[in-house]
## 1
Amino acid sequence: MADVGYTPQAQSGEGSFGDYFALLKPRVMSLVVFTALVGLVVAPVPVHPFIGFCAILFIAIGAGASGALNMWWDADIDQIMKRTAKRPIPAGKVMPNEALALGMALSGFSVVLLFLATNALAAFLLAFTIFFYAVVYSMWLKRSTPQNIVIGGAAGAFPPMIGWAVATGGVSIESILMFGLIFMWTPPHFWALALFMKSDYSDAKVPMLTVTHGRKSTRVHVLVYTLVLVPVAVGLAFTSIGGPLYLAVAVVMNAWFLKGAFDIWRRDETAAEADNYKVEKSVFKVSLLYLFVHFGALLFEALLAPLGWGGWA
């Protein structure tokens, strides 16, 4: 996007530890860590606690590396969007080249150490995740297509698959469905946000679906993707890592989320503007809980299994 110039407020480059830590997108990292941990714990192969701790640490560092590279590349549009204008680079607290160096260094560090601590497949998946988020999504998809969130959602969907690979050294239907759960959740989650943040993306010339196709079309997409998400989420209940607890949670959460998507679909812009997008904001908040609750239920199923209470057995 050559017409979006980057003119940060300052170029001191004298950021604090907190500024450099913010480059790693700690909120996103927390979701990565949690879903990767669940993928590792629910796997059928036990992992030594120290190896597991190291694996999750290196996955977290890899996620942070992705965040730093994303902030380096997106500095020009981050300064335009109200939601991101206070990030370290557009705020002038960290130099762009420092963010790039940090992202590259942490990328190599995390992948190599995950390989040494676990196995080649887990390291490859982590490396591919970093590449996908930094290059495929940030550098290509985000600024070129309204399907940016759909395809780019794969980057956030890999962590449980990586955790599973750490334990088993392979891929299975369980890890694929955990990937699918996050992958299908990502579009309605972000589009619910985009419905009440349209001006940000428009100002930054990011082709979010709300900008290129309008809010009406976006509302239809939210409902359609949620309808596809539901069987993936519920289907996990009938695999080796599911059980009655997860099934109950999945049914309740998906009914709640689906109702929200239906409410978004039937809304018109006049009503939405009149109440300042109250419904859209509510559905977005539900979407924030959605993944944590699902993966939390999977975790509880695994922890209860040794007591004879988890799973279908």
## 2
Amino acid sequence: MKSTLPLSGRAASAAAAATHVSSNQKVWLSRLVFGLLLVFCLTPWASPPVALALGLVLAQTVGNPFPAFTKQYTAKLLQFSVIGLGFGMNAYSAVQAGRQGILFTVCSIFGTLLLGYVAGRWLKLGRHLTHLISCGTAICGGSAIAAVGPVLRAKDEEMSVALATVFVLNAIALFAFPAIGHAFSLTQQQFGLWCAIAIHDTSSVVGAAAAYGKDALEVATTVKLARALWIIPVALGTAILFKQQDVKVKIPWFILGFIGAMLLNTYLPATHYVGPWLVKSAHIGLTITLFFIGAGLSVRAIKSVGPKPFALGVLLWLVISSVSLYVILHA
């Protein structure tokens, strides 16, 4: 017995050491793969849909080795990228695109919020979670959820589920919408307007529109950012509806940066020398943003959604997508 214990102890120590080495190898492997894919996203061969797909593959295989880093910089990188895109747009064309989308914006936002309320009660979901998913679908995905969540004083679990629901559907939309647009022979203007209305996050809207064409990108970005401004009245309305007091509404200031860049590009000829470089950098930034988003969609994040919240998200998304497409085709 005396000789058996040391042997078993040494065996346990050896097994623990082997497990530790294996764990370290996995960490270094995930870091290496992450680095190589990130470098690839900087090349001309990468595109937003490809970057998102690579991020998803990374998350489902070796895992994201820097989850805190990607989560922290995703929103900031997207904001700077959107501002950079403004240096490639004309203010007159943007105003015209905004006029086309304003009626769509108002009707779709309030229609989605109302449908979400009814469907949420039918599915017996909590009011906070229902409202978060509805706002994310109606306005601008994760940005709207991040703005409305503190107003609701929503729990971390509710925020996580709402964000995961929106990000999963964003990933699907980024791949599906350009194919659907070509199948229905949508024009550049029609597709830009449709994806700005029907896709949740600004990142996926810009990615899908960029894959469809330059004019689609201009329309989609302008309409989507005008739509994002509705975060402010919806958040204030949320505070009143849910009887919340002493809350702060997060204003999407980067939209003002986009407008400023667009005005400089339109009225200041000197910016035309640096504008193309800034736009190119913005596209690279958007590509990296979508890689970060894909890398954050782990199996655990997807499983955390649950059937009912995901059913609500899918229902709202299908309704707003199909109705807006029908109106655009027959308007």
## 3
Amino acid sequence: MSKTLFASRGNLVGLLLLAVLLLVVFPLVFDIFRLNLVGKYLTYAFVALGLVLCWGNAGILSLGQGVFFGLGGYCMAMFLKLEASSPENTKIQSTPGIPDFMDWNQVTALPWFWEPFHSLSFSLVAVVVVPALFAFVIGLAMFKRRVGGVYFAIITQAIAAILTILIVGQQGYTGGINGITDLRTLKGWDIRTDHAKLILYFINGGLLLGALLLAQFVQQTKLGRLLVAMRDKEDRVRFSGYDVSSFRIFVFCFAAGLAAIGGAMFTLQVGFMSSSFIGIVPSIEMVIYCAVGGRSSLIGAVYGTLLINFGRSLLSESFPQLWQFAMGGLFIAIVMVFPDGLAGLYQTYAAPLIARRFRSGRGGGRIAAASTGSRVH
């Protein structure tokens, strides 16, 4: 009982410290340019949170999470692009009222699947529903046939490659390799101003903390315990009468939804979305974020994402050619030396030291109180 209480208290303290760092320290320390970069990094943390549940807890390694990140981003970008492509803004085009890349590719009418994205409400729902539905189809096809392990990882990697090729090839409908760019306003609100970027940063940070709480809730429920049991002893869980495939489908769709929210916030903060965030390389990088933070730690996943991306910025500014080598070296070091990532380092070294200090402080206080009491008597 006491151990559980201490763990809950530790999680609460960790969450509060993270909230102070994101919502107080960073806005005070960084200028708007750097703060917007941090906001971009935090959008990747949504993917890392989903991977903790999907890979760390359930043992499902997906190398295609960039697919769901990109789909969420494209759903938001389609709404923003349609708003920026009003007849007044596009009157110099051959066909006013459609996105510029469609006009360049001689598309003369807005495609039917773009029409619903005139509505912000539909777009916000689609941000989560479209990627989650796509994940459901993949999960149903794979997990019902008991496809898992390295085979599932390879399949998700192939899906990321196929979707990238599809988006690039359909340039007239998707923007191709350049993606959907020149996004300006959200319901008339200019998202390119410094004030808008500051507000979007706080919205992003609040959503991330909310997603972390939701993921933590899932971990602490019976479902979360079943996910871990499935990872360790799948046959025993199946023989106990549970439908393992249904649980796997759920956690895979849940992770896809989190990744999609991150993609939508990325589009809002950065101002574009392209196929470069859907392919194999960004998907593998997102797995590295999770591994560095600790694949069983939600808070560690956020710190791992920040650490990797801060390192990328610092190294790429000074040594742009060395960054990929540094990324590979860091991943190898984590896997071989610190398999539990930053969270494992904290649990192994920092947490026992803090606990000893805490106990010694309380013990010292009791001794001082006892000696004071004896002097009074």
